[in-house]
Design brief:
about 160 residues; 8 helices; mainly alpha
Length: about 160
């Protein structure tokens, strides 16, 4: 199995915080200020962690795609003269897939919520250590890379 390139950060908590802010669309200069790191550090982490492609995968929400599919289906039904049963069946199948399929965006949002949960619960649970949080973050990043690579781990 291919191994993902791991980012070496002196302070993994800063890396994770910077990553979370970047995924939320915060500007890099604001990340530098809030996390107290330099611009070259953010740039380095962004490039080595493949943050741009992860964030880009979130730009089109599942709701946007569903709405587009519904408009296409509606247009097909309104245009009965050129109605194609095959095209209609494909559009309906695509809509069904969109409604039932989990997207990378969904995964990232869930992982971010889970990270927030871990940070809240760590004071109440001795098992939630810094090492546990780091491991969870690495595994989540690896899974996102796997999803972005269409089921293949990216190097």
């Amino acid at each position: 199995m291919a191994k993902l390139k791991q980012v070496k950060a002196r302070n993994p908590e800063q890396y994770e915080y910077a990553y979370m802010l970047f995924m939320q669309g915060v500007a890099q200069n604001e990340i530098c200020t809030r996390v107290k790191i330099s611009a070259p550090t953010v740039q380095s982490w962004k490039e080595s962690g493949n943050w741009e492609s992860k964030r880009a995968s979130r730009t089109i929400s599942i709701d946007d795609l569903v709405q587009k599919s519904l408009r296409v289906i509606s247009d097909m039904l309104d245009n009965r003269e050129n109605f194609s049963a095959d095209a209609f069946a494909k559009a309906v199948a695509q809509l069904k897939t969109l409604k039932t399929h989990n997207t990378v965006d969904d995964d990232i949002n869930t992982f971010m919520d889970f990270q927030d949960y871990l940070m809240r619960e760590r004071s109440n649970n001795r098992d939630i250590t810094d090492e546990f949080i780091k491991l969870a973050t690495r595994l989540q990043d690896s899974y996102i890379q796997y999803r972005l690579g269409n089921g293949k781990l990216q190097k």
